[in-house]
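Much of what follows relies on a compact textual record of a protein's fold. A complete example follows; check for yourself that the lines match position by position.
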Amino acid sequence: MDTEPLPLDGITVVAVEQAVSAPFATRQLADLGARVIKVERPDGGDFARGYDTAAQGLASHFVWANRGKESIALDLKDPRGRELLHALVAEADVFVQNLAHGAAARLGFDSAALTARYERLVAVDVSGYGAEGPYAHKRAYDMLVQCEAGLVSVTGTPDRPVKAGIPAADIAAAMYAFSGVLAALLRRGTTGRGGRVEVSMLDALAEWMGHPLHHTMHGGRQPARTGLAHAVIAPYDAYPTADGGQVLLSVQNDREWRRLAEQVLDRPELGTDPGYATNAARTANREKTDAVVAEALAALTAAEALERLEAAGIACARLNSVADLAAHPQLSARDRWRQVDTPAGPLRALLPPVGLPGGAAPRMGAVPALGEHTDALLRALGMTDAQITALRRDGVVA
C-alpha cells in the first residue's frame, strides 16, 4: 500500500516571527509537511535564540519551536529587504507574523494589506491583545498575559498565586493560529481565496479559562487556589508515600469513593459515612478527607500505592519531575522519541502529538542556523551571486 503524503506537502509558509507564539504555530505546519521560511533580523535573528544555552549551547525555546524551517535573514527596514520579502510571499500559501503592534502594518505586511494584494494568501496576525481596543498597544509577554487572563489568580496555593510553568498564553495562541491556518486553507480549497486569520494571546488564553470563567460569572465566586488539589472535587490531590514519593489520585464520583475506602484506605465505613459519602460532603470536609487518604498512603511506597489504586480502579499518577518525563516508560514504549539535527548536533525531540497512521512520518527537520538558507532562497528568486554579495555587504541580508 502506498504511503499517504503529509497533508501539507506543497504548502509554503513565510513567517516573520519571534519568541514562541508564531514560531510554535509554524512548527506544527512544518511537522505536517509545509515548507516554512523563517524571516529573521540580520543582527541576531529571532531574539528567542538568546533566551538560554541549555540545549548544547542553543536556546531550549528556539530548538523546541523552530525545527524543520529554513532561515533567511532580511533587514525589513531597508526597501530592498521588503522587496525580497514580497517576492517570497508572492509564491507562498501562508504568511504569519507576530511583530509588535503596528510594526507589520508600517512595513506593509499586515494581513489586511497582504490579502488585498495576494488573493490566495492566508495571512495570519498573532498579537498580544488584538488589533483594537485600549490594550492593543501594550507589550504582551506570556507571563503578563497569564496575569491579565486571570490564569495566575486560579493557579497556586491559597497563600500565593503562581504562573503556569510553561508559556501557556504563547502555546494557546500558537495552537489557535495553527488551527486557523488549516481552516483557512480548507476554505480556500472551496472558494479559491485565502483570507485573514487573527489570533490574540489574551483571546486564546481567555478561552482556556472557560471553566473558572463560567464558574465565577454564573456561580458568583471564582474557584479557590488549592495547589495540586482540585477546587471542586475531593479527594483529588497529591499525597506523600513512605519512600519519599508523591502519588496523585482522583475520585470522580461516589462509587469510586466507596471503592477507595474499602480497597485502599481499609476504612469501608467511610464509604457510607454522611461526612464523606458525597463529593459535596468530602469537599466541605476537605481537610478530614485529605487526612484519611494521606494516612493510608503514607504507609505505602509509591509503587505499592499505585498498584493498590489501580487494582481498585482509582485514577492515579506519580508526581513526576521533568527528568522523569524525559525517561517516561510510556513514551519509550510507544517510540515517541526522534533525533533532530541542530547547529549544535543532533538532539532528542518528541514526535508531534497528532498521529496520521498510514501516512508519511512527520517531517521533523533540522533547526536552522541564522541565515542558513539566505543564499539558496535568494538564488531561487533569480538573484546572482554578485547581487547577493552586494546585499550582504550593505547589511540587507545575512
